[in-house]
Write a structure and sequence with these properties.
Blueprint: E1 2-7, H1 19-22, H2 27-41, E2 44-49, H3 53-66, E3 69-73, H4 82-89, E4 95-99, E5 121-124, H5 129-145
Parallel strand pairs: 1-2, 1-3, 3-4, 4-5
Helix pairs in contact: 2-5, 3-4
The structure holds 1,3,4-trihydroxy-5-OXO-cyclohexanecarboxylic acid (DQA).
1,3,4-trihydroxy-5-OXO-cyclohexanecarboxylic acid (DQA) is lined by residues 10, 73, 75-76, 78, 99-101, 103, 110.
Function: Catalyzes a trans-dehydration via an enolate intermediate.
Site (Transition state stabilizer): 17
Protein name: 3-dehydroquinate dehydratase
Length: 146
């Protein structure tokens, strides 16, 4: 079972960028723990990050053909991107939205998510642990469908 883990803009700076908000783990650390957990869960993962909206859209299109589920932290595109929402609306398998920080505790412009209109579940404020919890949930949803 293949799942995609997609990350939006500025998450390449994870660990260096505002560590008081996002913690000190890097995206490479997150990827390593996702890979270890995926093996345990019997999932194969494609893990990507981009600062470009179209690349994220293209990966969602690719996932449409191949994946059984998707975890996405759209970062700032969460709050702006109808295009990412539309791409996710064309994806039929389970989607879990992850935010490292508790967006609801932050500025008002972070309280609205276009992606939440499609996501089957949303995790916010659990730090980078949110990715692992999202993968566990995806594994359950995929198993329930099979
Ligand atoms: C984020 C929250 C977003 O509001 C922000 O733009 C990010 C990261 C998070 O993981 O907490 O870049 O998605």
């Amino acid at each position: 079972r293949l799942v995609y883990v997609l990350n939006g803009p500025n998450l390449n700076l994870l660990g260096k960028r505002q560590p008081h908000i996002y913690g000190s783990e890097t995206l490479a650390d997150v990827e390593a723990s996702c890979r270890a957990l995926a093996t345990e869960l019997g999932l194969e993962i494609r893990f990507h990050q981009s600062n470009r909206e179209y690349e994220i859209i293209d990966w969602i299109h690719e996932a449409r053909e191949t994946a059984s589920g998707l975890v996405i932290n759209p970062a700032a595109f969460t709050h702006t991107s109808v295009a990412i929402l539309d791409a996710l609306n064309a994806f039929d398998a389970p989607v879990i939205e992850v935010h490292i920080s508790n967006v609801h505790k932050r500025e008002a412009f972070r309280h609205h998510s276009y992606v939440s209109l499609r996501a089957d579940g949303v995790i916010a404020g659990l730090g980078t642990q949110g990715y692992g919890l999202a993968l566990r949930r995806l594994a359950q949803l995929i198993a329930a469908k099979a």
